[in-house]
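Entry 14. Ran structure prediction on the chain below.
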Amino acid sequence: MANILGVGIATLDIINHVAAWPAEDEEVRALAQDVRRGGNVTNTLVVLSQLGHLCQWAGTLADDASSEAIRDDLAQYGIDTTHVQQLSGAHAPTSYIALNVHNGSRTIIHYRDLPEYDADTFHRIDLHKLNWLHAEGRNVAALAEMLKHARRQCPRLPLSVEIEKPREHIEQLCGLADLLIYSRHYALHQLGAEAEAAPEAAADTFLRQQRQLAPRAIHVCSWGEHGAYGLAPAGELRHSPAFAPPKVIDTLGAGDTFNAGLIHARLTGQGLADSLRSACRLAGDKVGRHGFHGLSKPSIQEQP
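Output, structure tokens:
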């Protein structure tokens, strides 16, 4: 059991289950609707908590009813919100999501007026009891200062950063972490969409490019139905296939679950190849169910 701090956002997700995404100026009827807590880093912490870890969240909340619902949901999973910065006069970030019931794909419209977590608040956290620090790659300048502070305070504390979307100057975060987790979306933005035709070659090229920014880090890129690829500091490319459930039900948070599986595997001493496999199995289990509850015991079999 490890003590893990996650830095990032939490959202309120309003999920409409639809047969297909409507065309512009078209109306469709939702088949069902869910309202859940979302947000990359809090999703990852909820999964890690179910895997037996003590988890804390550093982020911002508003003082509205939606923020209370977010806090209550995290409390159900034992997530410590002591380090949350509560701000008045704003609203909880909200994602309006259309979830395709036939293939599990999701289309998201996100609204946010809540300021990001700031470095001054982060500096007040005692990091010395932590076993891992994981951050969502956003609010780049402030996060870079947080990671530098963590490295100065606790040189041996493992630091991981998720880089999901292209953001201005986000590459400066690469040299500040021990484990960098990239999305396929980010990789294809760097390489060009045509690279998607050859996943392994594209992943290899992308990860080796990223390795030049952080030679001593582990670089990992999830690649959807093609599994995930990882590059160790010594330069060996590792791969795990995806593990598909009998039916794809809900892809929301699959990447966040992958991140949790990867962190858990590293904390339990698994090598890179086994860590990728463990993370892909857990992500495969997640897309076969609604939400994140029950992910401590993956139901996906060993054969992909």
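Residues 300-304 have pLDDT under 50 and may be disordered. Will compare against last week's run tomorrow.
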